[in-house]
Predict the structure.
Amino acid sequence: MPIARLDKVSLAYGLRPLLDSVDLQIGRDERLCLLGRNGEGKSSLLKLITGEVKADSGEVWVRPGARVAVLAQELGALRDERVDEVVASGLADNPKGLEPWEIQRRIERTVERLGLNPDASMRSLSGGWQRRVMLGRALVNDPDLLLLDEPTNHLDIEAITWLEEFVLGFSSALLFISHDRSFVRRVASRIIELDRGSLSSWPGNYDDYLLRKRDSLEVEARHAALFDKKLRQEEAWIRQGVEARRTRNEGRVRALKQLRRERAERRERAGQIQAKLQDTEKSGKLVFEALNVRQEFDGRVVVRDFSARILRGDRVGIIGPNGCGKSTLLKLLLGEISPTAGEVRIGTGLQSAYFDQQREQLNPSMSIIDNVTGGSGDTVLINGAPRHVASYLRDFLFSSERLQAPVSMLSGGERNRLLLARLFARPMNLLVLDEPTNDLDVETLDMLEELIAEFAGTLLLVSHDRTFLDNVVTSSLVFEGGGVINEYVGGYADWLRQRKPALQEDRPRSKLAPVATAVDTKPATPRSGARKLSFKEVRELQAMPARIQALEAQVIELQVRIGDAAYYRQPPAEVARGLQQLQSLNADVETAYARWQVLEAAES
């Protein structure tokens, strides 16, 4: 028996239909991801299930007695409440009621389960911990259906991976909205997509969905082309006038009218952003050089003894937990603040564009068009040629009738698109992006990745989007505690592969050759006088590839089992045991790779 069901549900705001007679069924052990472009109506669909919004027609059914909890996209205004008070508020709507002792037990269990401090004030917590508290508020009622709206927004990577593990162990039904591709890949057991008012279901994982969706769009495009060709032929026939009336082919005329109606009712898929980065002169070869930089605030060391060189054309990711100092590092490199100690050298000929995560460059009270032009006319200069701003903004999917609307009326995703339009309206050879992916849909993320791939200048990127980092950057600066910043080749996944051997440098080890450092990932040369491998170690080295292959095969097999919705019908203890086994196997794989690198370095 399903937990919830939508039957022929329609919903419109004004003249724009969001849902057009859609059907959906949610099983009691499914993990569904709801995808769709910004503004398609995904959040509205969640509100239909909770009863916050009423459908124009159709039926929204939730199993009688089922508890539904939601973690909204926005946290709302925070009061000076303690964590345990916020968690307890999630029990207010319990349909069955609870005894006082059971209420206290549930609150304590939830707080402990999420690692929360019950006495902490909400205002004292970071955004990531605030979202974890609100998740506790949703979970304290032991919901049969949990709804999550963009749960990874504004979370750092550590918090996102924690949420992934938690959700994978959640034993009830889950429906979530997310554009975090890594999160969707790991968590979803089925993809549902809201596209032009229609809801489609795609069983399997996210990568299966991408392949099948591409094929579906190709078929749709072919059918549309054949339809339009038929319509053109019939329009040409009717324009013959006298001959058409003489044949008295009334059936053909009626068929043409039906074709016209169908064409008028066809909803075109939202277009792709047609943005391009403007060409400009190259900067000098050296873009930034930091020499023993130290930055302190009120006695707290944010950046400790940091040295690095960034050259023209480098694409550098900056990774670290919320509040560690990533934005501070950007400001140091850009010369916006001076270091407490050390020196930052800035290269010549830099023309920069800066995307700030708070979108402070946008004036909420000004119109969309004035935020791009600065109120100085109706044209922008693109690659040296004037272009009307309305035409330019159409490339970023802003319709002409909306250009005079204030920015305050835009969604988060639309504001990010507008900020990109504002930045790309000027030439640059240095692009600085501070958390650009929040609120952006997958299509816009893909566009941004393609733009950066074609960009000949230098990139500095702060992001918690693991897939975006992997697809864009060539090296990473990682905050690893105490203000220490280490440099790694590649993106997030490359850092994961390198960090464990690197961290082992600080631990007592035998006199084997050292592991390669984080900056230089080539096998290290053995120290002078290092002993040769023993017979046992030689045999271990020879057997290591087969051992790693066997471990990885076990990981893949277990991932397939865990990805099956039926896996979560087991008792919670069995589910947790499997998840713990997967975590242990992944750790064994990392340890094996690290040991292999040590042995190979000693042998060389």
